[in-house]
Write a structure and sequence with these properties.
three-stranded antiparallel beta sheet; Cytochrome-c3 Hydrogenase, chain B
């Protein structure tokens, strides 16, 4: 009779495939996972509590450091919430700039995911392709706001800096080049039999499970649910542009891969239209009081980040600082399904499933 010994294994908190300080306590029967317990909080910095002693402009740099792979989106959700509370009008040029940088950020974020996900599975070359192209986007962000990762670019009422001369043309060139690069990505990886054998049918769940766990982004759409806040509840200027919402049907790692790759193409479509319609002149900041004091009350707004639905709940007492500030972080919510997906899987699939969820630890722990 063959016997197997139960093993207790710590994956992390310092492990290259967790992409940050994240720990999973795994129980194994042979090579099969029987129990998985995520341990979070190693990167907790108390952002929401700190915000209670800061004015709204001072909070913006803190949002950069939540999901630091898509900081522009975090900037926007805070500013958008305050603007809705105060009933502020945003100049068209500023709103175009916001939308353009958010879609560029979505592409850059998906490139990080694509490169690191394939590196985790064992493919080295795609990582070099992805970070080479992401570097071009970060260079354009650096031109625009003087930073490559944590931008502090958006403000309540608009944006801090206008686009420098020739910047829009350089973004147009990037978009044109990225269509060709996207074809190269697919030729390099998407049809590879070894890669497909690692992700097809792995980490599978249905739409009901996804909704019950509160999943969003590609982790929800992979089950066939066509839910993207840019379409379902349009904000900014998204209702002006034509784009599709990619969905899957099997709810596995393969569908999540396909959706994110398709989202890069849809972001390029949005950028094409936005760059053509970009106003030739105009203000980049609306009429905003010197001290931003939202009226007493509360508000919740939500937008579509590269990882799913990011929400901002503000409770105001009419002061310059929020009485309470709460963020709904998609990485944190999406991670809750991980134990369910891992039980019964082979240990070699742990990294495949975790990478397919696409988390950023700064956002998980906040």
């Amino acid at each position: 009779m063959i016997r197997t010994e139960e093993l207790l294994l710590n994956v992390g908190p310092q492990h290259p495939s967790t992409h940050g300080v994240f720990r999973i306590i795994v129980k194994l029967d042979g090579e099969v996972i029987t129990e998985a317990t995520p341990v979070m909080g190693y990167l907790h910095r108390g952002t929401e509590k700190l915000a209670e002693n800061l004015n709204f402009t001072q909070i913006i740099p803190y949002t950069d450091r939540m999901d630091y792979v898509s900081a522009m989106t975090n900037n926007y959700v805070l500013c958008h919430a305050v603007e809705k509370m105060m009933g502020l009008e945003i100049p068209e040029r500023a709103e175009f700039l916001r939308l353009i940088v958010m879609e560029m950020q979505r592409i850059a974020s998906h490139l990080v995911w694509w490169g690191t996900y394939l590196l985790d599975i064992g493919a080295i070359s795609p990582f070099l392709y992805a970070f080479s192209d992401r570097e071009r986007i970060l260079g354009l962000f650096n031109e625009l706001c003087g930073a490559r990762l944590t931008y502090n670019y958006m403000r309540v009422g608009g944006v801090k800096w206008d686009a420098p001369e020739g910047w829009i043309d350089r973004v147009k060139t990037l978009v044109k080049d990225m269509y060709n690069r996207l074809d190269e990505y697919h030729n390099l990886v998407s049809g590879n039999e070894i890669f497909l054998s690692r992700i097809k049918g792995v980490g599978q769940y249905d739409a009901e499970t996804a909704i019950n766990y509160g999943l969003s982004g590609a982790n929800l759409r992979c089950t066939g649910v066509q839910w993207d806040l840019r379409k379902a509840e349009p904000y900014s200027l998204y209702d002006r542009f034509q784009f599709d919402v990619p969905v899957g049907k099997n709810g596995d790692c393969f569908d999540r891969y396909q959706i994110r790759m398709a989202e890069i193409e849809q972001s390029l479509r949005i950028l094409d239209q936005a760059l053509e319609q970009f106003p030739g002149d105009g203000e980049t900041m609306g009429k905003v009081p010197r001290v931003i004091r939202p009226p007493a009350g509360e508000i919740y707004v939500r937008i579509e980040s590269p990882r799913g639905e990011i929400g901002c709940h503000i409770v105001s007492k009419g002061k310059a600082e929020p009485y309470r500030l709460k963020f709904r972080r998609p990485s944190f919510v999406n991670l809750q399904i991980l134990p369910k997906l891992l039980v019964g899987e082979n240990m070699t699939n742990l990294v495949t499933i975790l990478g397919g969820i696409d988390i950023v630890l700064g956002e998980v722990d906040c």
